[in-house]
Amino acid sequence: MIQTFPVKTSTQTELIDVTHSVQEVVKKAGLEDGICIIFIPHTTAAITVNENADPSVVQDILMELNKMVPFKDPYRHLEGNSPAHIKASLLGCSQTVFIESGKLALGTWQGIFFCEFDGPRNRKVYVKVISGGR
Ligand code: ZN
Fold it and tell me: What is each CA distance from 29 to 32, 99, 129, in whole angstroms?
């Protein structure tokens, strides 16, 4: 079964730490060892794993992504949100994290971030937890 939780974004581009929400899903699943797959069903957002200790890291990631993929360019997509589609493809729509002793096996400085590139919007995150067995 797939679990979902909502993410409400408040600006055009932002990274939101969703580690706690993903960990809650893992906790409810009640398994000790396994795999957690985080997937987002969107074409103008992404999911990434990076540092959640210093908030300037995600600000720098956004600043550089916005330079690499400018908001204004002769894009062909008529909806006008091509930069968001391109950033979404660069970062990807899923991440996999191991579960150990009932917890996400993330590094000390790692967090899971929902990446909004075409907000503000109401978004969804899908989480699938698979038992590793013993
Ligand atoms: Zn579009």
Answer: 9, 11, 7
Per the structure, the complete domain to which residue 88 belongs is given by 2-131
- Going from the Cα of 2 to the center of ligand 1, the distance in angstroms, rounded, reads 26
For 49, residues 6+ apart whose C-beta sits below 8 A from its C-beta are 95, 97, 106, 110, 111, 112, 113
88 band by pLDDT with thresholds 50, 70 and 90: very high
How many structural domains compose the chain? 1
Please tell me what DSSP assigns to residue 73: S
Find, among 63, 62, 64, the residue nearest to 45 by Cα. Answer: 62
Distance 44 CA to ligand 1 centre (A): 7
Residues with CB under 5 A from ligand 1 (ion): 79, 81
Contact yes or no for 99/31 (Cβ under 8 A) = yes
- pLDDT tens, residue by residue, 108-127: 999 999 999 999 999 999 99
Which positions ≥6 away from 56 have C-beta within 8 Å?
none
